[in-house]
Design a protein that fits this description.
alpha+beta; five-stranded mixed sheet; 13 helices
Length: about 300
Amino acid sequence: MHLLIPFASGLSEAALQVARDTPLPHLSRLLARLCVLDEPGPIPGPDSFSPPHERALARALGWSGGDGCLPLAAWRAQADGIDVGDLAWGELTPAHWHAGRDQVTLSDPAALDLQPDEARTLFDALRPLFVDEGFAFEWGSPGRWYLAHPSLATLRTASPDRVVGRNIDPFLPYDRGARLLRRLQQEVQMLLYQHPLHDERVAAGRLPMNSFWLSGCGVLQPATGPGPQVLDALHGPALQADWTAWAEAWQALDAGPLAQALEHERRGEPIRISLCGERRSVALCPIEGRLARWKRRLQASPDTGALLVSL
């Protein structure tokens, strides 16, 4: 059993205070019984293109690739039933870019709440722009579309999980291979602004799709290990900075999957829990050997809140 928990902590003082104060009894018991291992290698920090949960997923699958170069799009496209072959894929997320006084920020894509018929209408409207430039353009779900093109093979892109609510400029791709995409993005923005759905949604008080975010580019790599079970309940509350809902979601994870993990561990079954924050991730693993277990008993149990804050 390998559980991977994204957004196990946050960066704001409000998030850190809730992380300190939220009781998670099963996680605390697991910490008392397991060894805490730091993420291998240097810690890229909160401005990296690949957040810790994506790096942890890539390690579990045995992938190689630098920051912003993990082939998540091809992996997800295959899971969505697309024959990815040996093409280089990117995930195109329908998005709303919010233009402020000094910067443009990426809104949470979930806030678009694109209905299936709306998403399909916009997908069909954009498709010729990409196909005419030699891209494959494939549907995954209302909020998940895919591109394939040789220019995406090594294109470094930022995860939308990293960019939501932040100035997009430091996270836009400026590689040579991004020139065509930047032009297409401008054409997409003009088409979307003129599309009837834009005015309909604005009139209804709903965010319009006015751009897209591209991420996860690369050619699919074979997995050399089993994929973890990703527990994504903290994702939405964290991106919305709803720390009350985040704490409630954490407690539900603690009472459910983590309580089950504790039972597995007590039966001597192998488990691994990856806790991923904004800066780094840690893995909770069984303690190997009698001497290691004896030393562990002599140590003070890690403070759950302090561990979450450190992420």
